[in-house]
C-alpha cells in the first residue's frame, strides 16, 4: 500500500525565493490550462489534450517574453500541474455522472497567488534525491535541510513541497510499504463509541476524556483574530497578523493530530479487531454542537484507525449509524427505546441491569461489528440478530404523496360537472 510521510523543511532565504518562483510557475501553468479549457467549452470546441497543453503552455511559452520566466521551475513540476488539472476535471465529471461517491465536486477554479497555501510536486523525472548527508536535493532549489523523524521504508516515487499558511515548509513523500509490517496477533477486540464529553468510550469500560484543544486555545485565538481585524488591509502589519493567526490555529491542529495518532496507534496495537460507529459528521457539523464536533475531529480519528488497521493486518469494521446502540441492553438485547442526551445511565426494564450509556453503546457496537464480520455482510440488525429497521409498509390512503398526472378524460369530466372515479 502507498503511504504519505511528512517532514519539516528548513530552506534558506535564497531557497525560499526559489521555491516561491516554483510555486508561481506551477500555478500560472495550471491557470493557463484552465483558461484554455474554459474558452474551448464556451466556444463549443473539444477540450485541448494534455500533450497539446504541455507544448503550448510550457515548451512554446518559455520562448516568449511574457512567459520566459517559466525557466525558473523544473519542467516536471509544471507538467504535474497540468496532470492535477486533468484529475480535477475527472473528479468533477465523475461527480456529475454519479461515478464518484460522496459530496459533489465543484468545477476546477483558478488558483491565486494570495492563497496562504502553496504546493509543488516533484516526480522522479525531476531527479529529486535524498542525499547521504540527509538533505533533500530539489532541482532549481538546491540541498534543503530536512528534519527527519523516521526512516522512509522505500524510495519515494514523488515529493510534494508544501508551504502552509503559517509560513512553514514541509516535504510530503509518497512511498510504497511492504506487507511485512503486520503486527503479531492478539486476542483483544474493542468497540468504540465516540462522544464529546468523553472522546471515546470503550467496550471494556474505559473512557478517554476529550482534550478539547480548540476550546482551551479559544481565548488566545480570539485575541489574535481581534488584532488582525484592527490592521489596515494591504499593510505589512496585517500580513504579519495573518501569519500569527495561522500559527495559532496550526498549533491547535498539530496538537489534535498528535492526539489522534497516538490514540489510534494504541487502539490498533492492543486489539486484533476494532469496531466503530459510522457517524454523520457532516450533518452534526451543522448543528448547535458544530464547534465541539469539529474540535473533536471524529472523522480524522476514524480514518486513521481504518488505514492503520489495513497497514498492520488488523480487522476494522464500521457499524451503520442507524444501529440503535444507545437503545439496546448489552446484557439481554432488550430494546428500551430512545433516550434524551441528558440521560447518562439507565436501567434495563427486562433484566434490571444498570448501564452507563456510552459504555453500553460501545459494547453493542462491538457485538454488532463482530456479527457483520462473521456474516460478511453490511446490513444492520439487532445485536442479538433481530431486525431493527422497520419493514416497508403501504402508505395510508389519506397520506400526502406524489400523484401521477390525471388522465385527460377525468379533467374533462370535472369541467363538465360529472363526478369522477
Lay out the secondary structure:
Layout lengths: L1 E9 L2 H30 L7 H10 L15 H23 L20 E6 L5 E2 L4 E4 L3 E6 L10 E6 L5 E8 L12 E6 L3 E5 L4 E3 L3 H17 L6 H35 L2 E5 L3 H4 L5 H7 L1 H14 L3 E5 L25 E3 L6 E3 H19 L32 H8 L6
Parallel strand pairs: 8-11, 11-12
Antiparallel strand pairs: 1-5, 1-7, 2-6, 3-4, 4-5, 6-7, 8-9, 9-10, 13-14
Helix/strand structural class: alpha+beta
Would you report the number of β strands?
14
Amino-to-carboxy terminus distance: 65 Å
Low-confidence spans: pLDDT under 50, at least 5 residues? Answer: 378-407
Radius of gyration: 28 Å
| Overall outline | elongated
In terms of DSSP E residues, the strand content is 15-25%
- The largest sheet has its strands arranged as 2-6-7-1-5-4-3
Multimeric organization: single chain
Query: What is the H/E string?
Result: EHHHEEEEEEEEEHHEHHHEEEHH
* Range of helix content: 25-40%
Largest sheet descriptor? 7 strands, antiparallel
Output the number of helix runs.
Answer: 10
**What is the arithmetic mean of pLDDT?**
86
What does this structure look like?
It is a single chain. The chain has 421 residues and is α+β, with helices and mostly antiparallel strands. It is built from ten helices and 14 strands. It has a seven-stranded antiparallel sheet. The protein has a five-stranded mixed sheet with strand order 10-9-8-11-12. A two-stranded antiparallel ribbon has the order 13-14. Helix 1 crosses helix 3 (75-97), helix 4 runs antiparallel to helix 5 (236-270) and helix 5 crosses helix 8. Residues 378-407 have low confidence and may be disordered.
